[in-house]
Amino acid sequence: MAYAQPHPRLSVVSNSSHSSIDHLSPTTSSTRFSLPAVPTPQAVAKPAANRPNIYDRPLNKTRNAEVSASAFAFLFSEIVQYTQKRVSGINDLERQLNTLGYRIGTRVLELMVWRSEGSSKTPKRELKLLSVLMLIHTQVWKAVFGKAADAIEQSVENADEYMIIDNDPAIERHISVPKDMSQLSCSSFTAGIVEAVLDGLTFPARVTAHNTPITQFPNRTTILIKLEKSVLEREELLKK
């Protein structure tokens, strides 16, 4: 099992089932307390009649909205803790994180396609593999993590393998993995997002995440994309 660390780093697993409540001491010596006054109907603020419902807000106006990094780190840490309690090992945990990421990836792709169609009179569909990989490396990473990935490479040994490298993954930044689980990569969640986008664009592949730390970037992660044979065959036809 993982262990908790002091803030600001969040552990992969912490004993969150037993929460503690701090003792609050009154600021005065008096032990008498009074109930707050019940506001009258006139004093209750009425919601603005013209305030739009969250579901009525245009999606294009929220494309640059940012989410608190602390809130995101806390939420993702809780997701990992919740998932680990329901799996039998590291491989199963990574598989479950990949599945959760896949669900997010389908929605990210749907949102990106909708926005591109709404902002362009002639929306373009990418048909070539390299263009799709660059789309994921840049636009998908920016949509999810607020920045582009650091590199994209093709395997020298296998023509069907590509790698997207992130030197400082946002989801790994506040996660502490114990030594007995050193093989665990929480970026399996990101791998699921990439796999969903590739499947949605008809470039089916198996995507996995691997820890590839270096001295300068201890959290460096490689997202390995292994394409299906049909994708390479289509690429050869497009070259003709």
UniProtKB/TrEMBL annotation:
CDD domains reported for this sequence: TRAPPC5_Trs31
Database matches in Gene3D superfamilies: Trafficking protein particle complex subunit 3 (3.30.1380.20)
Transmembrane segments: none
Localization of this protein: Endoplasmic reticulum; Golgi apparatus, cis-Golgi network
Pfam hit, one: TRAPP
GO cellular component: endoplasmic reticulum; TRAPPI protein complex; TRAPPII protein complex; TRAPPIII protein complex
Low complexity: compositionally biased ranges: 10-25
SUPFAM superfamilies per record: Ligand-binding domain in the NO signalling and Golgi transport
GO biological process, one term: endoplasmic reticulum to Golgi vesicle-mediated transport
Main location: endoplasmic reticulum
Keywords: Endoplasmic reticulum, ER-Golgi transport, Golgi apparatus, Transport
Disordered, as annotated region: 1-35
UniProt-listed InterPro entries: NO_sig/Golgi_transp_ligand-bd, TRAPP-I_su5, TRAPP_component
UniProt KW Mitochondrion keyword: no
Superkingdom as given in the UniProt entry: Eukaryota
Family affiliation: Belongs to the TRAPP small subunits family. BET3 subfamily.
Assembly with partners or alone: Part of the multisubunit TRAPP (transport protein particle) complex.
Record's protein name: Trafficking protein particle complex subunit
Species: Hypholoma sublateritium (strain FD-334 SS-4)
Record lineage: Eukaryota, Fungi, Dikarya, Basidiomycota, Agaricomycotina
